[in-house]
Amino acid sequence: MGETQGGPKARKARPKAARIKRLLPGTALLLALLLFLPGSPARDAQGMLAAFGVADFGGAPSRWPFSFLVFDVGKADALLIECEGEAMLVDAGTYGCGAQISEYLARRGLALRYVVNTHPDSDHAGGLEEVLRRCGAETFLSPPLSTDGPESGSGWREAADACREKGIPVRVLQTGEWFPLGGARVYVLGPLREYEGSNNNSLVLKVVYGERSFLLTGDAEEEAERDLLREGGLQADVLKVGHHGSASSSSAEFLAAVDPDYAVISVGPDRNELPRKEVLERLYETGAEIYRTDVNGPLLFCCDGESIRVFTEGEPPGSYPGPEK
């Protein structure tokens, strides 16, 4: 592999203070006014986004060599990583999210090299079938699963059926391996053993591009986090917070080892009232900038291998620059 597991440790500048970015009130008001103007293209959701050119973040992902998009899919996960012309989708939200994701991919003209399922829960695997049938992929990457287990009713079985019908190869990822995505490397850090329940059996991926790294933890909880801590190599600039900010994940020891500059929580309203207050407090202690899809909407992290820029769809049109030359 040529590197220690998890890739190089990146030097990073500490942000001055933890904070949650919010939409500018003026932008939100303007959106609301245009939404109700007679004859305005903003009267439907797709038209509103198109009118402002923000559905694709002003084309920013195409101007940067590496981008990490967190879709706004409620309390679920759907993540898109692009690197030097190659794309990887990690999970696809619930059953109803497949269409939204497929339409985005089609609008961008993206072909997926990989589709990854971190674990078979319906809020991660539900939308996979539709994406695979409509958009295809070169390879479907799966965690070790039993075909007769509880995943059969969660979307994973349907995704496997779609792969078989469309001739998409299915590859089971093994902890300790890595695979390329453009000029990036994707390291498989976990699961380190077989656990009870699907959450701790989530694939844990660390994506390294240049000097920067992104840690994707699926729904891994404290039991799996303790095992990962013993292995090391967790430091990352951007952390996709585990299990939507549940109290059973993101222990203080784990967050200290990751030491992120940015933490992003993919979450929406539900009876669990996520993210939990104690998790937010632990994240504040790391000094990371905290972003939430229920507050910020979809989020885009762009990287040139050295610097990272964060964009939200609430920013004014034309404010999505490429990397500095």
Question: How is the secondary structure organized here?
Answer:
Elements: H1 25-35, H2 45-52, H3 60-63, E1 66-70, E2 79-83, E3 86-90, H4 97-108, E4 114-116, H5 122-125, H6 128-135, E5 139-142, H7 156-166, E6 170-172, E7 178-181, E8 184-190, E9 204-209, E10 212-216, H8 222-231, E11 238-240, H9 252-258, E12 262-265, H10 277-286, E13 289-292, H11 293-296, E14 299-303, E15 308-312
Parallel strand pairs: 3-4, 4-5, 5-6, 10-11, 11-12, 12-13
Antiparallel strand pairs: 1-2, 1-14, 2-3, 7-8, 8-9, 9-10, 14-15
Helix pairs in contact: 4-6, 6-7
Folded structure, characterized:
The protein is of the alpha/beta class. The chain has one domain (66-305): Metallo-beta-lactamase, Chain A (4-Layer Sandwich), CATH 3.60.15. The chain is built from 11 helices and 15 strands. The protein has helices at residues 25-35, 45-52, 60-63, 97-108, 122-125, 128-135, 156-166, 222-231, 252-258, 277-286, 293-296, and strands spanning 66-70, 79-83, 86-90, 114-116, 139-142, 170-172, 178-181, 184-190, 204-209, 212-216, 238-240, 262-265, 289-292, 299-303, 308-312. It has an 8-stranded mixed beta sheet with strand order 6-5-4-3-2-1-14-15. A 7-stranded mixed beta sheet has the order 7-8-9-10-11-12-13. Strand 5, helix 7 and strand 6 (170-172) form a beta-alpha-beta unit. Helix 4 packs parallel to helix 6 and helix 6 (128-135) runs parallel beside helix 7 (156-166). The model is unreliable at 8-54 (pLDDT under 50).
